[in-house]
Design brief:
Structural class of chain B: alpha+beta
Order of helices and strands of chain A: HHHEEHEEE
Number of helices of chain B: 5
Mean pLDDT of chain B: 81
Structural class of chain A: alpha+beta
Shape of chain B: elongated
Low-confidence stretches of chain A: none
Number of strands of chain A: 5
Oligomer: heterodimer
Order of helices and strands of chain B: HEEEHEEEHHEEHEEE
Distance between the termini of chain B: 119 Å
Distance between the termini of chain A: 40 Å
Number of domains of chain B: 2
Largest interface: A-B, 41 and 37 residues
Largest sheet of chain A: 5 strands, mixed
Strand order of the largest sheet of chain B: 10-9-7-8-11
Helix content of chain B: 25-40%
Helix content of chain A: 25-40%
Strand order of the largest sheet of chain A: 4-3-1-2-5
């Protein structure tokens, strides 16, 4: 009996997700729907490499080519651990591959409100996180929801 | 008796002479360059290149001409420089450094070879990466350390963000990097785009001019590390 319940719930979930993802009535893009369903971390994991290529192509058209490697990672608010966006980071290849996220820290500099963007080696706020030196933010990605 | 005494004296003198170790033998022997450094011409994928060898190991391969010199002529020049710095003693460090705005390999302050953008592109590397690679190859072949212990001074500053499309100032950015480079940064150019209609992208490029609409010139070794909001 329990087995039937599990199968039924799974079917409902699959049908629901299929309906939401393939719905033509909505003008939402696949990325917007994926963010609503699975969150920014999933979207960055799935679409990050394509977004990274797109950004590099976009900057390349303006004659701006980064030295080293680039990668798209999620931005995580340092206060509450919530995923608040995504950023492209750039730097030496080994340092960029270590980077898992960008930590966003809100502070005040000379009386102005500032958001520090710190490339870090983990997405788990609250655990041991280390800043990755030599890596900077080269682009910001805002998701429409 | 006299003869015996004379013989004994001669024998003792001979033994003393044999046991005597002259002070010159305890001093450091004269330095001799352990590895031969040569340049040779080669053809790789139909392209003439100049190779520099330390012993039988290729440490640098030059693929491009520069300043009217062919790759082989440039290789000869680099080989001579390496011979020069190793002629009397081995250099203490061979490291990658910036020389006149370009990444280069330097042995105790003496320039050995510069990694130009065309050379780096042909090797599929950045100029810094290529210079570092060459420094490691040369130092490894000569048995010299390649660890650069000189810290690069860094600093930060706030500059305006200027939109490339409109030329308007749309905020402020905190930029960090090597102090020598940071002084060149006067603004951050914002290049905007949209990915699949739902992701707004703002590329942030530290630049050396505020006229980003017609002339965008990135300042290397600097990056944005924060955003600053100005209350209106």
């Amino acid at each position: 009996m329990t087995g039937y319940k599990v199968v039924a719930i799974a079917l409902v979930l699959i049908l629901g997700l299929t309906f939401v993802l393939t719905s033509t009535a909505s003008a939402e893009s696949l990325i917007t729907r994926a963010i609503k369903l699975f969150g920014i971390a999933y979207v960055v994991r799935q679409f990050g490499p394509d977004m990274n290529k797109f950004i590099n192509k976009m900057t390349g058209q303006h004659g701006v080519n980064w030295e080293g490697t680039t990668k798209v990672v999620p931005i995580i608010s340092a206060g509450n651990g919530i995923y608040v966006g995504a950023a492209q980071v750039q730097g030496a290849s080994d340092r960029v591959s270590e980077t898992r996220a960008v930590g966003q820290v809100e502070t005040s500099i000379s009386g102005l409100r500032a958001k520090l963007l710190v490339p870090v080696n983990s997405t788990k706020i609250g655990q041991a996180i280390n800043r990755i030196p030599g890596v900077g933010v080269s682009a910001l990605l805002d998701f429409k929801i | 008796m006299k003869t015996k005494l004379l013989l004994l004296l001669i024998t003792v003198s001979a033994i003393c002479a044999l046991l005597y170790v002259p002070s010159s033998t305890t001093s450091t022997p004269a330095y001799a360059a352990s590895q031969e450094v040569v340049a040779r011409e080669a053809t790789i994928a139909g392209r003439q290149v100049g190779e520099i060898l330390v012993g039988d190991q290729i440490v640098v391969r030059i693929r491009t001409s520069a300043g009217g010199f062919s790759p082989y002529q440039r290789a000869q020049e680099v080989a001579q420089r390496i011979q020069g710095v190793t002629a009397t003693s081995m250099p203490s460090t061979i490291v990658m450094r910036r020389v006149n705005g370009q990444y280069a390999v330097v042995a105790d302050g003496t320039l050995l070879v510069t990694a130009g953008p065309a050379e780096a592109q042909l090797n599929g590397m950045t100029t810094a990466g290529l210079a570092n690679f060459w420094a490691l190859r040369i130092s490894s072949a000569l048995g010299v350390t390649s660890v650069d212990t000189t810290p690069t001074p860094t600093s930060q500053k706030i500059v305006p963000i200027i939109s490339i499309g409109s030329g308007l100032r749309v905020g402020g950015a905190l930029v960090a990097g090597a102090s020598s480079r940071l002084s060149e940064v006067v603004a951050v150019a914002q290049i905007e785009g949209t990915f699949q209609g739902s992701v707004r992208i703002r590329a942030l490029v530290p630049v050396s001019t505020t006229d980003v609409v017609s002339n965008i010139k990135r300042v290397p070794e600097t990056a944005v590390i924060g955003l600053v909001d100005i209350k209106l």
